[in-house]
């Protein structure tokens, strides 16, 4: 895909996420890996609703700025996912309300932040890890993500928000949206003893769609 098309796609998806209230103000960032090993990423302090394709930050394979505006301070967390997940073609990080709320609950299992609530959550997100709180832009968050050894495509940053990778930008955006909706379901049903997918149903999904999940059933 051409550089121009990728820039336009980042702006299009960013605006869609912003207009639906999935990341407010100048929060959130998006990156896409390029064929030469570098990547495009949204600039620092930029609203996803008002991105300019020409001002997108272009980085080399080592995360150094090549052209465009200064990149988001969250470059370390994007870098960590690209380094540990060879299949990652794009990364989306939002401050979506229900996912942030989920990350603050005391009962959340860091190895499986959500149970297998729906088939599409399992198919698009697999399982979601929770990493401890670090201030925005802290390089230590990259070490925490690297510590997951590439087993998770979706990660919750405690008191901060989700960061999700996908094979393509569209896949990463759709998975992030699925994570947010599942977090919303969890909060709506919390304390009501809902029925989750059974181990047999989960095994059927895994076989049918060739899913590779971390070895940690909820």
Automatic annotation (TrEMBL):
<dbReference type="InterPro" id="IPR050197">
    <property type="entry name" value="Aldolase_class_II_sugar_metab"/>
</dbReference>
<comment type="similarity">
    <text>Belongs to the aldolase class II family. AraD/FucA subfamily.</text>
</comment>
<keyword id="KW-0119">Carbohydrate metabolism</keyword>
<protein>
    <recommendedName>
        <fullName>3-oxo-tetronate 4-phosphate decarboxylase</fullName>
        <ecNumber>4.1.1.104</ecNumber>
    </recommendedName>
</protein>
<feature type="domain" description="Class II aldolase/adducin N-terminal">
    <location>
        <begin position="8"/>
        <end position="187"/>
    </location>
</feature>
<keyword id="KW-0479">Metal-binding</keyword>
<comment type="function">
    <text>Catalyzes the decarboxylation of 3-oxo-tetronate 4-phosphate to dihydroxyacetone phosphate (DHAP) and CO(2).</text>
</comment>
<dbReference type="Pfam" id="PF00596">
    <property type="entry name" value="Aldolase_II"/>
</dbReference>
<keyword id="KW-0456">Lyase</keyword>
<dbReference type="InterPro" id="IPR001303">
    <property type="entry name" value="Aldolase_II/adducin_N"/>
</dbReference>
<dbReference type="InterPro" id="IPR050013">
    <property type="entry name" value="OtnC"/>
</dbReference>
<dbReference type="InterPro" id="IPR036409">
    <property type="entry name" value="Aldolase_II/adducin_N_sf"/>
</dbReference>
<keyword id="KW-0862">Zinc</keyword>
